[in-house]
Amino acid sequence: MTHYLSSARLISGLAILIGLTIILALTSCQDVRSQSVSMNQTTTSPVGLAPPEATPSHSAAASLPKAVNTKIVRVIDGDTIVVQANSDLQPTNDAGTQHTVRLLGIDAPEMNFGKGAPPECGAQAATDHLVELLPKGTEVIITYDQSPGVDRTDRYGRSLAYMSASAIADVNLAQLKSGYAEAWIPKSAAQPGRWNDYLTAAELPKYAKTGAYGAPERCQSLGRR
Q1: Span 16-58, pLDDT tens digits
Q2: Residue 121: which pLDDT band, with cuts at 50, 70 and 90?
Q3: Parallel, antiparallel, or unpaired for β 80-84 and 67-77?
Q4: Taking CA atoms, which of 53, 108, 114, 169 is between 20 and 30 Å from 132?
Q5: Which H or E run contains 107?
């Protein structure tokens, strides 16, 4: 009987020991899995997120200058001018020295350079008038429109902008008032801030027959309509 009781106690002790061993093993596995999940979460959570310093606080367009100072190189026609390139005006010529500006909101008759066609009615008069306003070397300010959706450049890299000089607050407007250009923007383009003023200014020369609307050209229209 004593031998039987001793054997029973031994078996019971072994069972308890085995049970404790199994419990410790299961607890250890859970800890390992928990640590693994925690490490994976720590490792994978930043994936796909840009570091704070790489996220811009404002759009690239907002950092560009509103106005740029430069000098006149030459006048191409009644609405297009070449100026000196600089750090704010990317070159549009191979030599990297010049930048072309297309006067925003107006359109003058085409000179048709290299097209095998004569200049449009009023083209030479419009060009000559702009040369008078902006002789070579004139210091000018190119101002970009800040209205939503208005482009700063066209597909050729030319600036689309207003231009002013010391004696001329708005060269674009001066061409309109003198009767050498019409108010114009592409149909799909957003209206610049000065658009309504330009439309109004362009009407008087038509009725007064001044500029290219007058003698000797007597143009019925100027530029694109």
Answers
A1: 555 555 554 545 544 444 444 444 444 333 333 343 333 333 3
A2: very high
A3: antiparallel
A4: 114
A5: strand 106-107
